[in-house]
Design a protein that fits this description.
Elements lengths: L6 H14 L18 E5 L2 E4 L4 E4 L2 H5 L8 H13 L10 H12 L6 E5 L2 H20 L5 E5 L8 H5 L4 H4 L9 E4 L18 H16 L4 E6 L15 H11 L3 E5 L23 E4 L11 E5 L1 H5 L23 H15 L2 H22 L3 E6 L4 E8 L4 E2 L2 H13 L2 E2 L1 E2 L10 E4 L7 H18 L2
Parallel strand pairs: 3-14, 5-6, 5-7, 7-8, 8-9
Antiparallel strand pairs: 1-2, 2-3, 4-10, 9-10, 11-12, 12-13, 12-16, 15-16
Helix pairs in contact: 3-11, 4-11, 8-9, 12-14, 13-14
The structure holds pyridoxal-5'-phosphate (PLP).
Length: 463
């Protein structure tokens, strides 16, 4: 740390925090007797808290965001220069970084062509849902309005996004939700045995066929879109089974259902390709992204569509309602695309996609070795630097460990100065997957350090 805060300053900050901050995802009762953690500084893969304690961050800012690591002066400078030139103008006008980042982004997304800026993953998904509804009104007499979403997927925190939320514990107490959202089953092969009728072979095809069955049950003329994460994140780091995506694509084409891929976590390199869907040869109609787009150096989210989707909003220019009548005030902030341009340059110049693929494979192997020694690890899964380890109290029955035990592993790692994650109050009885998403700059030393902390923690918690 550079000592910017002396002890008196920081104790004032802690007091101010305790008096006034309502922390995200937190029960505050414990803060009546203990201090909340305040993260003061970050460099590379490391952060320091108010006590000067160093932590190795294996979750990129807690929620898979800081893809290029902390302390990037070149991003700060790009943002600073842009803010002095022009900080903001509403998105009904263009901006220099907005146009240039859109051009660079589209180069990475063959088949896609239009970028709509906003400022959070939830908001980008809401925009996509609104487009589906407007297309339904404009082209299908308002009938093709339903949006399918998948069990265990998450698309954001707003009531609209929670209406497409496949995590019942996360949704609990926030209903009633918006109508017109319909759930399809998850595709987690490890838990296929819990799904009625799931076969041992060709599970991927079976899981995708459940989507077709849902469309037929609802009536294809009522289903406008299917919204899926390429690899489910907070629902348990679920990589799709073989054959799944190919079949999903066929089904969407067959029933004229728009395919909306939520790349809020996977987008911009997390899995070793620019986008998660690019592993599976999928051709989406709409793609949403947020977290890693500017690695958290500025708030930015994008909804990217094909030209075909875009055309539907300008093909009857004489109709006063025939355009996307939506705005996001802060979607006009120029700091976002300025940071995103520099973030993308860093990923390219430092070959971080390649590093992600290599280090992801290394970490997968290291976690698998841990599984050889710790029977509590039921399965290791993931892609690139986006990995999960599902903890079970019995490998035979695959009984999930209680959430408290999974959280105890996280707390033990934290005490060792390593920040890892866990599925968190998302799925009743199934918050048992440890999550790892180190920055894409991670090296073998960082990964060894993370895995050794988990090794020690598992040994102590499950002694
Ligand atoms: C897959 C996915 N989609 C959407 C969101 C919502 O993004 P935000 O928190 O930026 O609204 C998240 C957040 O964790 C996410 O994991």
């Amino acid at each position: 740390m550079d000592g910017t805060f002396n002890e008196n300053d920081i104790s004032h900050v802690v007091d101010a925090d305790k008096a006034h901050i309502w922390h995200h995802l937190s029960q505050h009762k414990p803060y009546e007797t203990t201090d909340p953690r305040i993260i003061v500084e970050g460099r590379g893969m490391k952060v320091w808290d108010q006590k000067g304690k160093e932590h190795l961050d294996a979750v990129s800012g807690g929620v898979w965001t800081v893809n290029v690591g902390y302390g990037r002066e070149s991003i700060a400078n790009a943002v600073r220069d842009q803010l002095i030139k022009l900080n903001y103008f509403a998105g009904s006008a263009g901006s220099i970084p907005g146009a240039l980042f859109a051009e660079r982004l589209i180069e990475k997304m063959p088949g896609m062509s239009r970028v709509y800026y906003c400022n959070s993953g939830s908001e980008a998904n809401e925009k996509a849902f609104k487009m589906v509804r407007q297309i339904s009104h404009a082209k299908f007499g308002g009938k093709k309005y339903k949006i399918l979403y998948r069990d265990r997927d998450y698309h954001g925190t707003t009531i609209g996004a929670l209406s497409a939320g496949g995590q019942d514990e996360r949704n609990a107490q926030y209903g009633p939700f918006a109508p017109g959202f319909v759930r399809v089953p998850h595709c987690l092969e490890y838990r296929a045995f819990e799904q009625d009728g799931a076969p041992v072979e060709n599970y991927g095809l079976w899981a995708a066929d459940q989507i077709e069955a849902t469309i037929l049950r609802e009536g294809p003329e009522t289903v406008g879109a299917l919204c899926l994460e390429p690899v489910t994140a907070g629902g348990g780091v679920i990589t799709p089974p073989d054959g799944y995506w190919e079949r999903v694509q066929e089904i969407c084409a067959k029933y004229e259902v728009l395919l909306h891929i939520d790349e809020v976590v996977c987008g911009i390199g997390r899995t070793g390709t620019w986008f998660g869907y690019q592993h599976y040869g999928v051709k989406p109609d709409m793609v949403t992204m947020a977290k890693g787009v500017a690695s958290g150096y500025a708030a930015i989210a994008c909804l990217v569509t094909t030209e075909d989707v875009f055309d539907k909003f300008k093909d009857k220019a004489e109709d006063p309602l025939n355009y996307f009548r939506d705005i996001s005030t802060f979607g006009g902030c120029t700091a976002g695309p300025a940071a995103a341009l520099e973030n993308m340059r860093i990923i390219e110049d430092e070959n971080l996609l390649d590093n992600t693929t290599r280090m992801g494979a290394y970490m997968f192997d290291k976690l698998s070795e841990l599984a050889d020694r710790h029977p509590v690890i039921g399965q290791v899964r993931g892609k690139g630097l986006f990995l999960g380890a599902e903890l079970v109290s019995d490998r035979e029955s695959r009984q999930p460990v209680p959430e408290k035990q999974a959280q105890a592993v996280v707390a033990d790692c934290m005490a060792q100065g390593v920040i890892i994650g866990v599925t968190n109050r998302s799925l009743p009885g199934k918050n048992n997957t440890l999550c790892f998403s180190p920055a894409l700059i991670a090296g073998t030393d960082d990964i060894d350090h993370i895995v050794s902390a988990v090794d020690g923690a598992l040994g102590r918690v499950f002694a």
